Amino acid sequence: MSTDEKTPPREYRMTELAEAAGITVRTLRYYRERKLIPPPRRAGRIAWYDGRHLARLRTIAALLERGHTLGGIAELIAAFEGGRDVAELLGLGDPFAAPWSRETLVRLSPEELVDHFSGEATAENLAASLDIGYLAVDGEELVHVSRRLLDVSRKLVREGVPLPVMLAAGREIRAHADALAATFASLFRQHVLTDVPPGAAEGEPPSPEDVDRMARTLDRLRPVAHTVVEAEVALAMDRRIRAELRAWLGD
Which controlled-vocabulary keywords does the entry list (predicted)? Predict the structure, then answer.
């Protein structure tokens, strides 16, 4: 076989999968009935399982070790499977989807996410994180859109902020951030990106040169937006903290 040919993924019969996962066939059947694992591929009367099923069984075992019940695991899996994938979240395939941010994606297994947030890693919180857009699904993994936001979330939870409260605050902050982005986008569109590419009025796609020119212009504007937002938020925090401290001390 040539070196560029891919080895087909391994498949398992039920007994082989149970042995590889370290569980009994009876337990495997129970998990399948509870829809904790995806349906197998059928070939006549034979059910074939693959690496995805083995990874799911190992995840279930790890979550059970961390104190989750099967009911809680089923809810987590349902939220996990209902999440948006990475391509949808990041808008991949759009020629203008070059990221404005410099955030680093973080890949997490479900059990690693549980380790990060302990008892706060519930199906409701997972669904909220997926809905807001902090998390996306990539195969059997979760992807957090920002290492910085993930680290801050963990710190706030350790400081005593309940994860649902933090997610609600994150949703509110996201709305304000979207409004700020709309202000900057309107400013740039009206006063900087004023050269409309030829053919745009007829719905023709811009040329690679036009896309490159606009991308370079936006890249120059990136630090401007960051500086304005950082400065305004810092000044606002100064004003708010002074006012709150006076109120706290007065009480």
Answer: DNA-binding
Question: 98 and 179 share a domain?
Answer: yes
> Is residue 101 domain-shared with residue 131, that is, in the same domain?
yes
- Give all strands of the β-sheet with 141-144 in edge-to-edge order: 106-108, 141-144, 135-138
Note whether 102 and 15 are same-domain residues. Answer: no
DSSP state of 101: S
Number of neighbours of residue 5 by Cβ within 10 angstroms: 7
Q: Report the b/e string of 139-154 with b at 16+ CB within 10 A.
A: eebbbbbbeeebeebe
> What's the mean per-residue pLDDT of the chain?
84
Q: Is the domain of 94 the same as that of 180? A: yes
Q: What is the pLDDT of residues 107-126, one digit of tens each?
A: 988 888 888 887 788 889 98
Residue 1 pLDDT grade (very low, low, confident, very high; cuts 50, 70, 90): very low
Domain boundaries, position 158: 80-189
d(CA 157, CA 171): 16
Backbone angles phi, psi at 211, to 5 degrees: -60, -45
Mean local confidence (pLDDT), 82-95: 60
Residue 74, domain member (yes or no):
no
- Position 229 pLDDT exceeds 70: yes
CATH number, position 57: 1.10.1660.10
Last residue of a domain, one of 18, 41, 65: 65
Spatial distance between the Cα atoms of 61 and 20, rounded to a whole number of angstroms:
12
The number of domains in the chain is 3
Phi-psi category of residue 211: left, alpha or beta, with phi > 0 → left and psi -120 to 50 → alpha: alpha
